[in-house]
Specification:
Length: about 450
């Protein structure tokens, strides 16, 4: 086990004072798997006040007195040290009402969620694994410690944690654990919206998100009823070889693991069932589904208390995902002008993933999407003008040159940008001032030309 010095120093201090101490939880799991842990947690038979006395020359913070947790700052890094404990009843399906301390490491490990998280390690003793966590890692299994129904009944968040670990590591959820997840899935609604959102993001940005989404649609739709109608919904269109939900899962996994992008992929077609109709051509059509999906995404993310910045970006991407962007510099610039920078940076990744989740004979369109994306990159690299901020003049420039402050200034600047994008004017001060004066003389805002 390759444990950093600051973590070993904290463990050594407890050991020197005669206390039992072990690394526990996710750091042990990750070390067994050969993954570098993000942080290191310790468990000990020392009581919280005894823990603090062992570190007179360290900064210590009692972060969870009820649960016996002390945070020790070792070489600038935080180490959480928790007294071995037993948990009382979980009346709210989330937190124990009472906690009692124990001298038994095994009792402490027995209250944990999954076998892969119920291992302990010390340099003196080696690996302590009373529930077969190392074997389950070898078998690539997520399995509850003890009776699954009891574990999930104690803390409903564990249902989503099981899905997240499965999606992250590509581990199969053991049969009894999976059955309990499906049976007790409604308990997820006892969990706070913020925690649900956090776990959902962890699931969909994981490497094996597609398989997890396809294996547990009945659980995912408890969290996101907006996706319920998509499950098994046949698209009846020659472009599609999957139902809406299966297509969605494939688009999610086809996108880079960016939270907003994968959330947009998750919601991008959720408006299809409500917009479906059979055309005279014998094909299923979904006109307006992008706007309908953006509305559903907004409702879901509001309910889950998503940060507003993420919610806004997701809704914008869903609304834009089906918009055709012609591969000309003019059309691409007009798109870049209308979209936020964050959406423009992500939209082509969503479009490529969406296209690759169609019937195979339509995958060739991906190359055109990629070429259009390259056009956008070229526009950015060449610093070509596509936004008002890039114009050589602004409202102050116009006022300095004799224009009266008015609403017309904004209309004139917008028309100037149109002219630059369309190639009818150069982005140079004198040319733009001359054109601005012509527009003022006209007294009306010229009609904006449509993209090619």
């Amino acid at each position: 086990m390759n444990i950093p010095r600051y973590a070993l120093a904290a463990a050594a201090r407890l050991d020197e004072n005669g206390y039992e101490v072990f690394f526990v939880g996710g750091c042990v799991r990750d070390m067994v798997m050969g993954i570098k842990p993000h942080d290191y947690d310790l468990a000990t038979n020392a009581l919280p006040e005894e823990i603090k006395k062992c570190f007179p020359d360290f900064t210590t913070v009692l972060t969870g007195e009820k649960h016996g947790t002390v945070c020790v700052v070792s070489e600038g890094e935080n180490i959480e040290i928790t007294t071995y404990r037993n948990d009382g009843e979980y009346s709210d399906f989330r937190h124990p009402e009472t906690v009692s301390f124990t001298n038994s490491l095994e009792k402490d490990l027995s209250r944990r969620d999954f076998t892969v998280n119920a291992m302990a390690y010390s340099e003196k003793t080696g690996l302590v694994d009373p529930f077969g966590g190392r074997e389950d890692i070898g078998r690539k299994i997520i399995r509850c410690v003890g009776v699954p129904e009891k574990r999930f009944g104690e803390d409903a968040l564990r249902i989503l944690r099981a899905l997240r670990f499965s999606a992250r590591f590509g581990f199969k959820i053991e049969q009894k654990t999976a059955a309990a997840i499906r049976e007790m899935k409604e308990l997820i609604l006892k969990v706070s919206a913020e925690r649900i959102f956090s776990e959902l993001c962890g699931i969909i940005t994981a490497e094996h998100a597609e398989k997890l989404l396809l294996d547990f649609p009945e659980v995912i739709t408890v969290v996101l009823p907006e996706l319920s109608a998509s499950v098994g919904f046949e698209q009846k269109n020659i472009h599609h070889c999957y139902d809406v939900y299966t297509h969605t899962a494939k688009v999610v996994s086809g996108c880079p693991p960016d939270t907003a992008l994968r959330l947009a992929a998750l919601f991008h077609d959720c408006g299809k069932p409500s917009c479906f109709f059979m055309g005279d051509d014998g094909q299923g059509h979904f006109y307006g589904h992008a706007s309908a999906g953006a509305e559903l995404a907004g409702e879901a993310l509001t309910r889950l208390k998503s940060p507003n910045k993420i919610k806004s970006l997701v809704c914008e991407l869903v609304k834009l995902h089906d918009r055709e962007i012609v591969n000309t510099r003019r059309a691409v610039k007009r798109f870049m002008r209308a979209a936020s920078r964050e959406a423009a940076e992500r939209i082509f990744a969503l479009k490529k993933a969406d296209n690759l989740a169609l019937a195979p004979e339509y995958h060739s369109r991906t190359e055109l999407i990629r070429e259009t994306e390259n056009t956008m990159k070229s526009i950015v690299e060449n610093q070509e003008c596509f936004s008002l901020k890039q114009l050589c003049i602004n409202g102050n420039t116009l006022i300095e040159n004799g224009f009266e402050p008015s609403r017309q200034l904004g209309e004139i600047l917008s028309a100037l940008l149109d002219a630059v994008i369309d190639g009818r004017a150069a982005n140079e001060k004198e040319d733009l001032l001359r054109l601005a004066q012509e527009l003022r003389a006209q007294g009306t805002h010229p009609q904006v030309q449509s993209p090619e």
